[in-house]
Amino acid sequence: xxxxxxxxxxxxxxxxxxxxxxxxxxxxxxxxxxxxxxxxxxxxxxxxxxxxxxxxxxxxxxxxxxxxxxxxxxxxxxxxxxxxxxxxxxxxxxxxxxxxxxxxxxxxxxxxxxxxxxxxxxxxxxxxxxxxxxxxxxxxxxxxxxxxxxxxxxxxxxxxxxxxxxxxxxxxxxxxxxxxxxxxxxxxxxxxxxxxxxxxxxxxxxxxxxxxxxxxxxxxxxxxxxxxxxxxxxxxxxxxxxxxxxxxxxxxxxxxxxxxxxxxxxxxxxxxxxxxxxxxxxxxxxxxxxxxxxxxxxxxxxxxxxxxxxxxxxxxxxxxxxxxxxxxxxxxxxxxxxxxxxxxxxxxxxxxxxxxxxxxxxxxxxxxxxxxxxxxxxxxxxxxxxxxxxxxxxxxxxxxxxxxxxxxxxxxxxxxxxxxxxxxxxxxxxxxxxxxxxxxxxxxxxxxxxxxxxxxxxxxxxxxxxxxxxxxxxxxxxxxxxxxxxxxxxxxxxxxxxxxxxxxxxxxxxxxxxxxxxxxxxxxxxxxxxxxxxxxxxxxxxxxxxxxxxxxxxxxxxxxxxxxxxxxxxxxxxxxxxxxxxxxxxxxxxxxxxxxxxxxxxxxxxxxxxxxxxxxxxxxxxxxxx
Length: 626
Hints:
Strand 3 (about 45-50) and strand 4 form a beta hairpin. It contains 26 helices and 19 strands. The protein has 4 domains: about 5-90, Zinc finger, CHC2-typedomain (DNA Primase, Chain A), CATH 3.90.580; about 100-235, DNA primase, catalytic core, N-terminal domain (DNA primase DNAg catalytic core, N-terminal domain), CATH 3.90.980; about 245-450, Dna Topoisomerase Vi A Subunit, Chain: A, domain 2 (3-Layer(aba) Sandwich), CATH 3.40.1360.10; about 470-610, DNAb Helicase, Chain A (Orthogonal Bundle). It has a 5-stranded antiparallel beta sheet. The protein has a 5-stranded mixed beta sheet with strand order 13-12-14-17-18. A 4-stranded antiparallel beta sheet has the order 6-9-10-11. The protein is an alpha+beta fold. The model is unreliable at about 325-345, about 450-470 and about 615-625 (pLDDT under 50).
């Protein structure tokens, strides 16, 4: 990437123009603009855009930043995706990463164009040709509206071996290319024939609405009932979500996505006004599909098959989601003051319990007004997981009970609310007639299991009191990042064990590297891994709108914040040791008293080493002061 690409994008895109596309209510008030916040529900506008500084701030939810932060938030994308999209809008060329292969990109685009041309052919057959009567009859039986037929691009493949190939040949498209696009098959004896014949056709489009494949439903009892495009350079069923191109805006507006199984389920929901519904296309959810879905919503509702096989498929989907959804690592202290960074999901997952033998298509068409209540009453994922994994389990089978607990424990571990976690530990214990302590021990053991979904880092330090998402350490790292050259010496003397957030630690390591000393904040951020870059961008937004300061003031402020961090850590550790000393004194345990006093002396020495100002908390190294 060019060294000034980020700045050039900021110069070319006006934040008011960008925000107006997402916030129709934005109106000028004096020198700023005000509207309803796109990040939370509100009736009174509290979202402000400042043209002079080219940033925004919501006084309701606290979100703020520049064009990159806004686009990342409103589109639920990571920094590099925002950078690429805004660069495209601004006409700025990004030069980082491997160079694209024009021939390969052009060939893929050609395959997409062939699929879109096939879509036009199938649509014309359905709407205007005598060959499409069977498809029109199916549309009437399923009560598909004309609007839905058009919106989803539905069509019909005639009962012919070469209708599509003939049509493509008339457009000078060779059969070999039609087959590569997934629309024709090669005969053993040579030559090609249409892949889809006598089938109701569902175009499968990517998130941006490009047709990359098809699903075809057979007429009558022909097998297979559903036939999809084969794997190709443009079609990967496991990486696509049906209807997402039409649903993404509704998903973002509702902050909720409902996942159903079939094409008709999705279309029925959209036809009756429930446009935040997408389809998993009959497969268990994959990480790629979850990656697409999670962008627009913090609540995901699964409405899949109700039979036993469907429930187990849903369980697999839950486990996939647990590994793929947005999360954050939170420092959690244990009784010994050791913290473990535990992965906590930022997404709510719920499961609709469909009546056996029913599907969303049938439920919605019969009583469409009840669908919101059905979704609203979706069972929390932990209730579903416990019910599914214990419903047929014999209480006399010790090994089966052990396996059930081991499978559920990682899910329990991921619950961020300790009260909610305790509720489900109790529920599972009663269901399996086990001591709660045994289940809790397994949950804790799952933290140490090393599974990617249960990320853990152990550091010999407690969490500072009153830790906040925007803590003193966040502010310190923001200062160090924004004023990199001015604060380099401060960054090099920070004791990393006093920094709680592992992302902040990594940033400080980068900021302490002499080889990177001459880079600006924007240049440093662009060179970071995506997750770290995202965190760094968010830190920088903390300083937006601050008046410029003299170099000496910046250095003094950074030093003072670092000193405060050290004092907070010192006080936290001191209070722990003080409590231990009081307990040892009450129990007249002289050995323990000596040990704690030694630890207090070490703590004082360490604090004075890294923070040279004399500690006000000790008269000498042995006697703590109240």
